[in-house]
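Format notes (please read before filing issues)

Several people have asked whether sequences and structure tokens are stored in separate files. They are not. Every record keeps both together, in the order shown below: the sequence lines, then the token lines. Line labels are part of the format and must not be stripped during preprocessing.
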Amino acid sequence: MPKPLDTALDVLVYLPVGLAVTAAEELPKLAAKGRARVDNQVNMARVVGQFAVAQGRKQIEKRWGPQVDPPGQPPRPPAASDAAEESDITYEDLVGGNGLGSYAQSRPDVEAPSSTELAIPGYDSLSASQVVERLAGLSEEELVEVESYELAHRARRTILNRTGQLQGR
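Then the structure lines:
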């Protein structure tokens, strides 16, 4: 049975010291983790917002014609829809395509499977981070199937980069 003096020392001295040491070690890690999550969400919101504004502007211009700047107002910056008046603006136009360059054409021999054929159940409902968590347990063939499906559908860089890493590329 601990002595009352030992218990008092634990509570009054060692516990606060242990908390201070642990906090000094863990707080930077927690801050970095929080910063990464918030930055990711802010970037995604920015992309979605830009896409929504461009699509809204396109719809307005289809219905009421090109918008003219009021006299005395500075001209508005050109929107993506101004640069491509007759063509449809896609999500890829706003985020710079899939960002894969020639990588997307490096697998022309592989046909994309359907999502039900993939080794990851419910693939289409998963976020990129959820898919990446599941990739390490897949075989080489299953990784190729996921990569082919992703290239043919959403081309999420996070998933494609990780499948490439796991395949040794």
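For reference, the curators noted about this record: The helical segments are 4-64, 80-83, 91-95, 128-135, 140-152, 157-166. The chain has two domains: 1-97, 99-169.
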